[in-house]
Amino acid sequence: MKLRFEYRLTLLYLFLGGLWILFSDRLLLFFTGETHSLSHWQTYKGWFFVGITGLFLYSFVRRQMQIIGKAEKALQENNQRIQNQNITLIQQNKEIEQINGELEVSRNRALEADRLKTAFLENMSHEIRTPLNSIVGFSELITDPVIALDEKQVFAQIIKSNSNQLLKIVHDILDISSLRTAQIALHYKSFYLPDFLALVYSEWEPEARAKGLLFEKPVVNADSATLVKTDEKALHKILNNLVHNAIKFTPRGKVSITAYISGQMLNVKVFDTGIGIDIDHQVDIFEPFFQLTDTQTKFIEGTGLGLAIVKEYTALLGGTIHCTSSPGSGSVFILQLPIQPVQARVVEPTPDNPASQQEWNGKKILIVEDEQNNYRYLYEILKPYHLQICHAENGTEAVDFIKNNPDTDLVLMDIKIPVLNGYEATRQIKELRPEMPVIAQTAYALAGDEEKARDAGCTAYLSKPIRRLDILDILKAYLH
431-447 pLDDT, tens per residue? Predict the structure, then answer.
């Protein structure tokens, strides 16, 4: 067992002192040989002992102090290292706590997103099956010979109404998908604001009237410039969804639109006297898949995408949208968009010399369509106008037909067709007949599809499902 420092020092001193006492006098007698001078030498002997022991003590203490100093320095270094490690651990703990907090938030968001998506899919199944039930059911009834003609006409209107409802659901899903994946390209143009709002009014007034609501004609500030420059299609989608929601959530009363321009800002308010929205939900309603609780909207159906589309388009245009409302007192949605006021009314260019329907007699049209039902639909629309209607089922057939029939006046080109797709077929046809109109008619309806068609050389673009009036308008514009 190692003795403590003070014990070792004491023992060493005792040992040296004992040796000195026992042998110092004998050594003096041995060297001097005189006993009478022994006391004189003993004085020097004492000082010598003190000096020697002092040197030993100094050397010993100095060495111990060096050891202690090194130990203290090592201890300080260890303490500093431990302190630094503690600081690092504290920082790491804070980072871990922050990461855990962020993970918890992300987890909660993921769970909420999963819950909303599950609820959305369940609701979407209901929203899709409801119009499909009417479409399928009344399609069967309309072929029953026992049912009177006037009833069949009612059934046809029901089928049309539910088809439009189903089409809106598809458009909403495509819109939110394109917006969330940044696939929307903006196209700014100048247009006359009163005419634009009048169009929105004409599209929704019949639905409001059928529900017993008053849809007031839009009011535009007369003191402001009424020509604006922004993306007309995006603004149309925003207002369509706002007005649709206003009508849907208003059981009685009225809906109105007011607009004014202040500097470089377009301000639009959509007002309704509907059920209103609790303040706790006035931000949530702009999130995808969000729907009010069943107790609030037990008589209302919908996908929960309309206002999310409004929010995304508004942000894309650099604007803001917010709502002021209270339960039972209606709602006001306030849209603010940056625009470029224009002083002179812009007249959109139209094709020269649009033909009348009487001038279509004998005109040759090529329909490029691989689906027989789609071809039959287009054929039935065009049959009454005494056109020469020709058919190609793929792109290669279409190109060969144009090579062999240089008198063809117009092509209706599907895009997704076998052998040679519609884009490449259009390019080759345009090399043969650059002046001939080629109209894209396709089920591709995502952002950028129209640009792809026009880049390939298509003169105009129609997305399926195609309405009868859309086809006739195209023929009026391009069949000369």
Answer: 999 999 999 988 766 66
